[in-house]
């Protein structure tokens, strides 16, 4: 991945890890990314600029950030033309320059919309630092994708998981050293950081959401003729199901997943 030519308090590896999570949403039919509110609020201006530049390379259009003013704690990144299409419109929060996407009223009356500024949550969640395997997978993901177009992300994880388990101690030690450096930098910037695993109820909701998306994708494959498809601002969650948040017992024992084992991932929400 190219080096970030931006001024950010995040390291390059941290920026790459954040983008690796977001780019799972990218496809030829997605022109708007969705970023959860807790993650967006911990990003500094340099990190937001880095993410915007990476996404612009995918869509080849100018992009902007805006808050979702309809429902949920999330932000969008995309071309302004998609935010103004159909019943959408952009307004600004009172006394701020924050752009907010809302739906136009359908009563035929012109309204002056005053939207209160977004109030940050009491405790914004800090992105979890990647372990050795996550960094290894990040470095090699695009090469596997390029060599096997159309391959599913879960299959890529299985391939790289087997490769990681067969790697030499020297290679594994190199990635362990990188992971330790990233974690040390995060602790330095956020001394209060402590990893908090997802509660069982949260994991169940994620599994249900993933199963629903898989069913919708399967139906779309049946009814959509790809030769007639028109790029639209598809839902931002149209990504391959995310791996679970389960990680190895320790970074020293960072064993990659196989076809039967969930893939560790970076906590960014």
From TrEMBL:
Q: Name one GO molecular function term.
A: DNA-binding transcription activator activity, RNA polymerase II-specific
UniProt region (Disordered), positions on chain:
193-269
Task: Specify the HMG box domain's residue ranges.
Answer: 126-194
Its cellular-component GO annotations read: nucleus
User: Which stretches are tagged as biased composition: Basic residues?
Assistant: 196-207
Segments of skewed composition (Acidic residues): 239-254
Identify the domain of life. Answer: Eukaryota
- Low complexity bias locations: 255-269
Q: Which residues bind DNA?
A: 126-194
Please verify whether the record's keywords include DNA-binding.
yes
What InterPro entries does its record include? HMG_box_dom (IPR009071), HMG_box_dom_sf (IPR036910), SRY-related_HMG-box_TF-like (IPR050140)
Descriptive protein name = Mating type 2 HMG1/2 protein
Q: Which organism is it from?
A: Dactylonectria macrodidyma
The top of its lineage is: Eukaryota, Fungi, Dikarya, Ascomycota, Pezizomycotina
């Amino acid at each position: 991945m190219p080096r970030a030519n931006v001024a950010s308090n995040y390291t390059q590896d941290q920026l790459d890890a954040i983008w690796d999570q977001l780019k799972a949403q990218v496809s030829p039919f997605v022109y708007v990314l969705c970023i959860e509110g807790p993650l967006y609020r911990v990003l500094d201006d340099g990190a937001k600029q880095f993410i915007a530049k990476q996404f612009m390379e995918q869509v080849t259009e100018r992009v902007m950030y805006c808050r979702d003013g309809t429902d949920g704690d999330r932000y969008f990144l995309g071309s302004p033309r998609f935010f103004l299409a159909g019943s959408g419109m952009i307004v600004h929060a009172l006394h701020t320059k924050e752009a907010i996407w809302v739906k136009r009223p359908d009563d035929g009356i012109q309204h002056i919309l005053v939207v209160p500024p977004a109030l940050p949550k009491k405790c914004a969640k800090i992105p979890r630092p990647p372990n050795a395997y996550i960094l290894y997978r990040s470095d090699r993901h695009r090469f596997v994708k390029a060599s096997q177009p159309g391959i599913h992300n879960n299959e890529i994880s299985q391939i790289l998981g087997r490769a990681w388990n067969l790697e030499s101690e020297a290679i594994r030690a190199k990635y362990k050293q990188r992971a330790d450096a990233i974690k040390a930098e995060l602790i330095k910037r956020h001394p209060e950081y402590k990893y908090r695993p997802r509660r069982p109820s949260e994991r169940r909701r994620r599994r249900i959401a993933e199963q629903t998306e898989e069913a919708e994708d399967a139906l779309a494959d049946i009814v959509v003729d790809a030769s007639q498809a028109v790029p639209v601002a598809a839902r931002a969650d149209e990504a391959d199901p995310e791996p679970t948040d389960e990680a190895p017992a320790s970074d020293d024992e960072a064993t990659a997943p196989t076809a039967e084992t969930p893939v560790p991932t970076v906590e960014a929400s």
